[in-house]
Structures are given as C-alpha cells and as structure tokens.
Task: inverse folding
C-alpha cells in the first residue's frame, strides 16, 4: 500500500537546521516504503494572500502561481510535513504565505458551506510540523502551533505530530544535537508504517462492505 509523503520546507535558508531535520524525517519515511517528495518554498515564485475575499463567493483563489499546483498536491497527499524554523516566535513568512493561501478552503467550509471532510478522510491524512529554534525556552514553539492547526484543519488533515527541537544556539546547529536527526528518521518511518496499516485496514473494510 503506497503512502505518499510531501515535505515542504518554509525556510529561506537552504540546507539550514530545519531542512536537515526535514531531510532526516523524509529519509526515514522513504526507507519505510513511503513515496517521498520535497518542495522548497524558497525556490518557488508566489505571492501571499491579497485579502480580496473573492474566494468567499467562488471557493477558488484568483491568484495563479507556483503555489496553485502545490496546494492541489497537498490535498492529495497522505502525509503532509510542513517545516519552518522559528523566526520572532513564529513561522517564516514563506510558510505563512502558503498557509494564508489556503483561505479558499476556509471559505468553502465556513462561508459557502460546500466542503466537509468525513472522519474517515481525516483519519487517513496526517499532518506533521517540523521546526527548530535557536532559543532554549519551553514556549518558543507555542506561537506556531495554532497557525499549523488552522491550515491542517482547512485541508481535512489530522494534525498528528510535532518534531520541534530547541536550543540550536547551544548545540551549535542540528548536527551537534545528539538525538534529533536519528529520532526524526525513526519518526518518519514510524508514521509511514502506521499510515500504511491504516490504508490497508480502510481498503479491507471498504471491500467487505456490501
């Protein structure tokens, strides 16, 4: 049972701490049999939400750029992994722009009321947030979580896991941390295997139903 994994890096820095953590997760996912794809927002051409509210009438975003097909792929993937370092106690502007562009789904759910995700759909779509922070304080990631929650909810995705590693300044980067990279790889493999089991179970139940 193929499990699709889409990892999106929202860091403006190529091969920085957060992207390396994402890579470790995706490697573990691939080794467990996942069909893995990685997208770097840094390399795409796109604009943020204009706040025009036209999607409140049509359910469709009027902006057409590199995010348009990416948003379609997000809707189709089994495991969505969004990654961002913490900048000023929140996610990067790149990832926030992607999240804001999901407003058309919010409009369909809560304004037009023509979109609803079943419990089964949500169960079979998992969301993971990967992040690093220079600070070593316990609350450094708290500003990011509600934003990710809103995006996953709009897409009918179960917000399943956070892989958040603080203290990059103390460790001298992610590679100086004793456990972060191998733990991320193990988590990637674990989630893919779990999702494969869920998909097999769902397919079996569907086949047996009259």
Result:
């Amino acid at each position: 049972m193929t499990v699709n994994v889409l990892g999106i890096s929202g860091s403006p820095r190529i091969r920085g701490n957060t992207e390396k953590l994402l890579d470790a997760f995706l490697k573990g996912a691939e080794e467990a049999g996942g069909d893995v794809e990685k997208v770097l927002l840094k390399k795409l051409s796109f604009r943020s939400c204009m706040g025009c509210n036209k999607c409140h009438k049509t359910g469709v975003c009027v902006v057409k750029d590199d995010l348009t097909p990416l948003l379609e792929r997000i809707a189709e993937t089994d495991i969505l992994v969004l990654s961002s370092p913490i900048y000023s106690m929140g996610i990067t502007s790149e990832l926030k722009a992607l999240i804001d562009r999901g407003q058309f789904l919010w409009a369909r759910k809560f304004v037009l009321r023509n979109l609803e995700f079943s419990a089964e759909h949500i169960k079979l779509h998992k969301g993971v947030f990967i992040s690093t922070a220079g600070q070593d304080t316990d609350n450094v990631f708290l500003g990011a979580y509600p934003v990710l929650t809103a995006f996953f909810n709009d897409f009918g995705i179960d917000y399943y896991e956070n892989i958040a590693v603080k203290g990059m300044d103390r460790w001298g980067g992610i590679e100086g941390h004793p456990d972060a990279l191998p733990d991320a790889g193990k988590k990637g493999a674990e989630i893919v295997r779990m999702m494969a089991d869920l998909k097999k179970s769902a397919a079996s139940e569907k086949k047996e139903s009259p």
Observations:
- The longest helix spans residues 180-208.
- The mean pLDDT is 96.
- The beta strands are 4-9, 35-40, 79-83, 126-132, 158-165.
